[in-house]
Design a protein that fits this description.
Distance between the termini: 57 Å
Order of helices and strands: HHEHHHEHEHEHEHEEEHHHEHEEEHH
Radius of gyration: 21 Å
Shape: globular
Number of helices: 15
CATH class of the largest domain: Alpha Beta
Largest sheet: 7 strands, mixed
Strand content: 5-15%
CATH topology of the largest domain: Aspartate Aminotransferase, domain 2
Helix content: 40-55%
Number of domains: 2
Structural class: alpha/beta
CATH architecture of the largest domain: 3-Layer(aba) Sandwich
Bound molecules: pyridoxal-5'-phosphate
Strand order of the largest sheet: 2-8-7-6-5-3-4
Number of strands: 12
CATH superfamily of the largest domain: Type I PLP-dependent aspartate aminotransferase-like (Major domain)
């Protein structure tokens, strides 16, 4: 019954989701407090109180048919204008409401823009490690994913390898900063270099090559780290933003796509993207959530809670002998596995510690730990991490290497 194109998706169903389901089963068997589930990027920090208050106020104050009705496929005009204004104030951009298309989260924003620009066979370049869903999104429109191998020393993009992979078939490049799974934030210097390479290749091949900046973690940056806004670096940039992590609203499915005036054929792209949003079946982003966003543009989740988790987990794992870079943003640690990453995840599972293998991000040899969990879970899990480190002699290995 199912389509040939669906079969590989079913067979390779997301390891992250599989681990999450496993966690639920284990919690029933051993009790929730005895399972240390670090598999899913599901924020545990609650949405700001203002979000719930906004829902109540909207229901009281705004007309029901307006709040629950259809609107323009791109979203409510006042919401889009408010989002544009907020971006302009924060980043010195010059967006207006037509540049903003409200979407069903970043996942939908990515699908909208890829549907809008991809012809079959067009290549889309990504940097490993990358969020695995990109492969599915690109294949939805018969595009071909081209992977730049990771630089595991820094987890910054390997720009020589990047340049080598841009061909006359390249239509788009996806970046994700702050990054899932590494927590790396691309500096202005890196963005300038990526832009420089893309401009050179656009000239060489006489075509538009677009940069898609996937930004669900923009607001999650620690120690005052700056997350440069990407559109000023490169003219053909699209931004896929989401409130899933920045306001802890992943189930509400709300975000937006930025299509700046500077992109080639911007008016046509805006019109086409609005149609993509409709024909993909989203029709429009959830109406109530759009109205909530407009009232909560200045709100933030409690970043300090993630920071506390980051410090405790990073410092403890380093103390036990694990190798990893300190994440600057997002809420993941990407840790070197002492053996094959899948085998290591299997072993950790025996200690009721659920992690995701780096192979799921095209970066074998590493594992991802999502620390968007309670501080208490991290405290309780530390003896298990210590035992795991001891079982592999990580401390001795580290001392031997020094
Ligand atoms: N992009 C990245 C890198 C993600 O990690 C996620 C979710 O975890 C998404 C996109 C999808 O986000 P959304 O919930 O906004 O669709």
């Amino acid at each position: 019954m199912i389509a040939d194109k669906m079969r590989p998706l079913v067979e390779n169903n997301s390891a992250i989701r599989a681990m999450f389901e496993e966690g639920k089963k284990m919690a029933l068997l051993y009790g929730r407090e005895n399972v240390y589930d670090f598999s899913l990027g599901n924020p545990n920090v609650p949405a700001p109180k203002a979000v719930n208050q906004a829902i109540l106020d909207i229901i009281k104050e705004e007309e029901t048919t307006f709040v629950h009705g259809y609107m323009s496929n791109a979203g409510y005009e006042d919401v889009r204008a408010a989002v544009a204004g907020s971006l302009n104030r924060r980043f010195g951009t010059h967006f207006h409401l037509e540049n903003i298309l409200m979407t069903v989260g970043a996942a939908s924003g990515m699908n909208v823009i890829l549907k809008t620009i991809l012809d079959p066979g067009d290549e889309v370049v990504v940097f490993a490690p990358y969020f695995m869903e990109y492969g599915s999104y690109v294949r939805n429109y018969d595009g071909v994913l081209v992977v730049v191998p990771p630089d595991t020393k820094t987890f910054y993009p390997d720009l020589e390898e990047f340049e080598r992979r841009i061909t006359k078939k390249t239509k788009a490049v996806i970046i994700n900063t702050p990054n899932n799974p590494t927590g790396v934030i691309y500096s202005s210097g890196t963005l300038e270099k990526i832009a420089g390479i893309m401009e050179k290749k656009e000239k060489e091949y006489g075509k538009s090559i677009v940069l898609i900046s996937d930004e669900p973690y923009r607001e999650l940056a620690y120690d005052g780290a700056e997350v440069p806004y990407v559109t000023p670096f490169y003219h053909n940039t699209f931004v896929c933003y989401s409130y899933s992590k920045s306001l802890s609203l992943p189930g509400e499915r709300i975000g937006y796509l930025v299509i700046p005036d500077e992109v080639d054929d911007s008016q046509k792209v805006i019109a086409a993207a609005t149609i993509s949003n409709r024909v993909l079946g989203c029709v429009n982003a959830p109406s109530l959530m759009q109205r909530v966003i407009m009232r909560c543009l200045e709100e933030q989740v409690n970043l300090e809670a993630y920071n506390r988790n980051r410090e405790l987990l990073y410092n403890s794992l380093k103390e036990y002998g694990f190798e990893c870079i300190k994440p600057e943003g997002a809420f993941y640690l990407f840790v070197k596995a002492p053996v094959d990453d899948k085998e290591f995840c299997g072993y950790c599972k025996e200690h009721r510690v659920l992690l995701v293998p780096g192979s799921s991000f095209a970066c074998p040899g590493y594992v991802r730990i999502a620390y968007c969990v309670s501080y208490d879970q991290i405290v309780r899990s530390l003896p298990a991490f210590k035992k795991i480190a001891e079982a592999y002699g990580l401390m001795e290995r580290k001392e031997g290497a020094e």
